[in-house]
Amino acid sequence: MTATATADTLPPLSGDTLMGELLRLYPGAQRALFAKYHIGGCRSCGFQPTETLAQVCERNENIPVAEAVEHIQESHQADASIQISPVDFAKLRTERSDVKVLDVRTREEHEAVAIPGAELVTQELVQEVFTSWDKNAPLIIYDHTGDRSLDATAYFLGHGFAEAKSLTGGIDAYSVEVDPSLPRYRVEIE
Q: Residue 112 above 70 pLDDT?
């Protein structure tokens, strides 16, 4: 499973860091900023990739930059603790027969390519999971590139699924690192 980053190994971050670079270094930063400060989740609280973290903090109630940096880094470490690498996931599947795999992508993506044995998350499946699945068995959740699956994993952890993990890099990384027979794809946004 992935190791949690220590403060010494975290990418450098300061008030001068551009938001575009911040999101590259800390992929969960937008989620973290929105959860605590309501920054970046909608048009009225959005930001540009060319703005600095200090500029964004200043125009959002003068949030202390050091506080925002600390929150982003703590959230990054929390994200790392609930992820599993594609290689470790493949190893886990060979070691444990009770591993469940959930796909939180769209139906179209799932039907085009999926990790063998994965189930597409639907409202009906979520009800089944909550009522009959073992909350102590490994539950691996994936999407295309590993972004949305973190939110889904947090949701299942919050509902008592102690072994829920997000697949780092999603099916895209899995197809590169574990199963190259799975075709890679890009999502075109209109």
A: yes
- Compute the Cα dihedral for 10, 11, 16, 18 and give only its sign: negative
Asked if 99 and 140 count as a contact pair (C-beta separation under 8 A), the reply is: yes
**How many CB atoms within 10 Å of residue 8?**
5
Q: What is the pTM of this model?
A: 0.76
**CA dist 17 → 4, 34, 84 (Å):** 23, 18, 28
Geometric angle at alpha carbon 131, from 82 and 156, rounded to 5°: 15
Q: Which helix (H) or strand (E) holds 31?
A: helix 29-37
Query: How many CA atoms lie less than 13 Å away from 156 in the CB half-sphere?
Result: 34
Tokens found for residue 83: 């992820």
User: What count of Cα atoms within 13 Å lies in the side-chain half-sphere of residue 119?
Assistant: 13
Torsion of CA 26, 28, 29, 30, to 10 degrees: 140
Rounded to whole angstroms, how far apart are CA atoms 102 and 81? 19
Q: What percent of the chain clears pLDDT 70, i.e. is strictly above it?
A: 95
